Amino acid sequence: MYDVSTRKRALALVAQGRSLNSVSKETGVSRAAIRSWKTRIDPLPRRTPCSLCGPVAEPPEDRTSYSYLLGLYLGDGCISPAPRSGYYLRIACADSWPGLIEACATAVEAVSPSGKAYRVQAVGYISVVSYSAHWPCLFPQHGPGKKHERPIVLEPWQHAIVDAHPWEFIRGLIHSDGCRITNWTTRMVAGERKRYEYPRYFFTNTSTDIVRLFTDTLDKVGVEWRTLNQSRAAVTVSVAKKASGALMDARVGPKH
């Protein structure tokens, strides 16, 4: 027996044009089961052809900004229909990080077909908002319900962008659902106890798919990580090794 999320993820991969054999190897689901689901379950709804890119989504021109914005969207973003037509992209940014708010707005303006973004103040955070009929094409992970309750699978063109700009993607995920802290420890040196401080990064998300995208990208850039043991449903990834912390500091850095 397979749970609903496993079925949805397998069908989403098949919908991308993947072979039953490759989907079976990636998900651990038998090819017979996937074939059965294809005939018994309604296919995923097809998106209406877009006026900008046609029936198949086209990658944005500014791929560096997009990789960062993709990380922000997967963490703290959502897409909702506008009252008459089109969609709103909203990225929630805490008031504590004005630099993050500016970086988010800059990325949204670089990616949005309109080139515009505005800020909406709420209690404790600002939503960076932009309107476009194109957002579901740019972020095909959009769908009903919470992200951790549905499969989150990147399109091939999104994988290509993340592969080309991995640090921007990591920075977007850290800026949304991560943080940098300073840990400390003491050691005896020549009979004297000395204090040492070192950076440590955390990333927490309830979606196993999003966590996997994060850790897979860390692996590609040579950052060592581990998951923490915890009772809650969310998964926390820790980066604490000296060399990896220094690498993260050089390419990501703390929120500001």
**Strands side by side in the biggest sheet:** 1-2-4-3
Any idea what the radius of gyration is?
20 Å
Measured as a percent range, the helix fraction is 40-55%
Q: H/E series, N to C?
A: HHHHEEHEEHHHEEHEEH
> Mean of residue pLDDT?
87
Structural class: alpha+beta
CATH architecture of the domain at 171-251: Roll
Q: Hey, roughly how much beta strand do the residues contain?
A: 15-25%
CATH class of the domain at 171-251: Alpha Beta
Biggest pleated sheet? 4 strands, antiparallel
Topology, number of strands = 8
CATH superfamily of the domain at 171-251: Homing endonucleases
User: What is the overall number of helices?
Assistant: 10
**Which stretches are poorly predicted, pLDDT < 50 over at least 5 residues?**
41-47
